[in-house]
Amino acid sequence: MATYHLKLNLDKTELLFMPYKTSPLHDLSITIDGTVVAASRSARNLGVVLDDRLDFKEHIRATARSCRFLLYNIRRIRPYLTTYSTQLLVQTMVTSRLDYCNSLLASLPACTILPLQLIQNAAARLVFNRPKFSHVTPLLRSLGSGSKF
Predict the structure, then answer these.
(1) 62 CB contacts (<8 Å, ≥6 apart)?
(2) How far apart are CA 44 and CA 13, in angstroms?
């Protein structure tokens, strides 16, 4: 870094230790320019929360939480929107968050990504103004999304 005149921002630096199995080095820390950087259980990089087990549960939890908040707000103004404008809002605000880096979640078990599937189902019901327990498969097909998860 010194060769290329780069400076490390120690306020944004995190140490993420991913042990193979159980490891006695879990309390690992490093010192850079007199500042101690301790290991953490998770770290955020480009909007994706990576954890020390790479199970992405924290990332899924954060994504689902933000999408639920957006769906709640769209639901409040839904009576004033057409189906098409609701679909545009849901696609730009919610579906874009679900799609962001979803290739990282491809090999995860269905029980882990279930919260994201439930968000997608709720979004489809909101677009078509259907009740909570209505069947969602035909709605997803008509939106052309199928099931992404």
Answers:
(1) 49
(2) 10
How many C-beta neighbours within 10 Å does residue 99 have?
12
Report how far residue 19's alpha carbon sits from residue 41's, in angstroms, rounded to the nearest whole number. Answer: 11
Closest of 130, 140, 149 to residue 63, by C-alpha: 149
- Sequence-distant (≥ 6) Cβ neighbours of residue 101 within 8 angstroms: 46, 47, 48
Tell me phi and psi for residue 105, to 5 degrees: -95, 5
Length of the chain: 149
DSSP assignment of 68-129, as one string? Answer: HHHHHHHHHHGGGS-HHHHHHHHIIIIIHHHHTTGGGGTTS-HHHHHHHHHHHHHHHHHHTT
Q: Which amino acid, one-letter code, is at 148?
A: K
Q: What is the pLDDT along the chain (149 residues), one digit of tens a residue?
A: 889 998 888 888 888 888 776 666 567 788 888 888 888 888 888 999 998 888 899 999 999 999 999 999 999 999 999 999 999 999 999 999 999 998 999 989 999 999 999 999 999 999 999 988 888 888 888 877 544 54
